[in-house]
Amino acid sequence: MYRRMASNPSKNPDKAWILLLNKGEYAAFESIYRKYSGWVYNFANSLLYDSCLAEDVMQNVFMKIWEKRYEIDPEETFSAYLFTISRHLVYKETRKQLNIEIPLDVLQDKSSPSDLHTESQIELNSLKEYIDHLIDQLPESRRRIYRMSRVEGLSNKEIAVRLSLSEKTVETQIYRSLHFLKEKLAKHKGAWSIVCVLFVNLS
């Protein structure tokens, strides 16, 4: 399981590198790559469950960083900026995989495209209902934390403040919820990707 990078506005250890990156210094880019490439790969792989796709996402993330090297604000926390790009590209890849993973029997079906779309939508809605059912099986406190994080989009810190808990407790409860869903959805191809698209909000 990857560990989410902490974001602390009062500390910006990467500022010096970003200032050099803003000037087009490739050595600064290499330093950033060495520091964060492993994290980006682990994050992508933890959601995509495909090492090749995770590698592609990681490379694309740093291509984006290099392309935007003159635009990155050195006063902002770089780890948070990097996380935003990584999450966006993981979601983009997830949606792409959901679109192309069509069973062979469906491809051979003589139904019209509109019929296939309707059938796919029905199947997707059924899977959504099943996922909702699994979430309802979580213990009440864990379910509440999970929904606050993944549905309402609150950060771990915001949840901790609202519920008078430590951030570590919130993190642990979310991890256990995700682990439970992964186990239950392991036999359903593509199901965990749908969870990522519909519910995962790690900001």
Write the layout of secondary structure elements.
Blueprint: H1 15-22, H2 26-48, H3 51-67, H4 78-100, H5 104-107, H6 113-136, H7 140-150, H8 156-163, H9 167-185, H10 191-198
Helix pairs in contact: 1-2, 2-3, 2-4, 3-4, 4-10, 7-9, 8-9
Written description of the protein model:
There is one protein chain. 71% of the residues lie in helices and 0% in strands. The chain has helices spanning 15-22, 26-48, 51-67, 78-100, 104-107, 113-136, 140-150, 156-163, 167-185, 191-198. α2 (26-48) runs antiparallel to α3 (51-67) and α7 packs across α9. The longest helix has 24 residues, at 113-136.
Compact summary:
The chain is mainly alpha-helical and 203 residues long. The protein is built from ten helices and no strands. The radius of gyration is 19 Å and the shape is globular.
The description of the largest β-sheet is: none
What share of residues are in beta strands? under 5%
**Strand/helix succession:** HHHHHHHHHH
Low-confidence segments, given as residue ranges, are: 6-10, 100-117
Task: Please tag this protein with its features.
mainly alpha; 10 helices; 0% strand; globular
